Amino acid sequence: xxxxxxxxxxxxxxxxxxxxxxxxxxxxxxxxxxxxxxxxxxxxxxxxxxxxxxxxxxxxxxxxxxxxxxxxxxxxxxxxxxxxxxxxxxxxxxxxxxxxxxxxxxxxxxxxxxxxxxxxxxxxxxxxxxxxxxxxxxxxxxxxxxxxxxxxxxxxxxxxxxxxxxxxxxxxxxxxxxxxxxxxxxxxxxxxxxxxxxxxxxxxxxxxxxxxxxxxxxxxxxxxxxxxxxxxxxxxxxxxxxxxxxxxxxxxxxxxxxxxxxxxxxxxxxxxxxxxxxxxxxxxxxxxxxxxxxxxxxxxxxxxxxxxxxxxxxxxxxxxxxxxxxxxxxxxxxxxxxxxxxxxxxxxxxxxxxxxxxxxxxxxxxxxxxxxxxxxxxxxxxxxxxxxxxxxxxxxxxxxxx
Length: 402
What we know:
Blueprint: H1 9-12, H2 17-23, H3 49-57, H4 71-84, E1 88-92, H5 95-104, E2 112-116, H6 121-133, E3 137-141, H7 146-152, E4 157-163, H8 175-184, E5 188-192, H9 197-200, E6 210-214, E7 228-232, H10 234-248, H11 254-265, H12 267-286, E8 291-293, H13 303-309, E9 316-320, H14 324-334, E10 339-340, E11 350-352, H15 364-370, E12 376-380, H16 386-399
Parallel strand pairs: 2-3, 2-4, 4-5, 5-6, 10-11
Antiparallel strand pairs: 1-7, 6-7, 8-9, 9-12, 11-12
Helix pairs in contact: 2-4, 2-11, 4-11, 5-6, 12-16, 14-16
């Protein structure tokens, strides 16, 4: 029986996102399975030596090696691309592999990058430490102000790199304006969209060239596996990114790809429920702590911009206790339901102290410049009953005098 090779791309692109999240990219084997098949293989056999040569030369379609292609991984890449509204996608072993590859594949000695200062700690290590080691200069700016992007451009500027909403300050960057500036100057805009995912925000609709993900977060959504993804047009993915990943090997395992495929099926339901829970909890916290950073709150200085770009504000927020590390750690240690964990996007509520965990590698001056103080906590709101989460926060806050 001849194997069914997949879907008609013209048809799948017409499907709405909720349908694409369940059926996009599916390719059934001769057994006709309804769930995606899991192909655990490192290599592939050929009918003859000539077929092997034709595969490697590109004259014949088919798999050659799982560092380059795997049927399960390919299904995930096609599904994410459909949901993103992108021409193509390549998956990676982790979110940081995705961020690293998205930058290094297109940069070389003498190039210049402009990056927003509010980034995940490891992304700041890329801009502040790794890229300069390769002779790539970086300028770090407050990305909330459009004038800063324009002022930082040099003749050798090749990339704008930013995250919105930002980790953990929840800064919002005007996608349309910043990406528009990049296009007008032939600069590639690379957007880390891990906090929002393509369900709540699709940066390419606002002019972004490349969108990168830690699929470990909301896309898996249940704290099970590590994964990353980079989306863009076919020319960037196949001619710029692919040669880099082919030869450096940040390959996503088939099993992890299969788990993320399952996660995507419920992403829309989960992230909207978690966003609704997060808004209730943010409103509760506003009356108890010094400050809450959550784009869904009217008090957020960029609330209007966030809601013009996002379908909902997502499950992540940060809060300031006004009391230093001792009070922050005290609250964490008093939690009974919420877990102390540096992960986000999980269906469980999680809380961490960024200054001593996710951003501990930044110099204190850099942390303070961004707004990561010793009394800041980051909260990932899960799928539990929001009343239970608020009751846990109430007793923990009370234990530290708040």
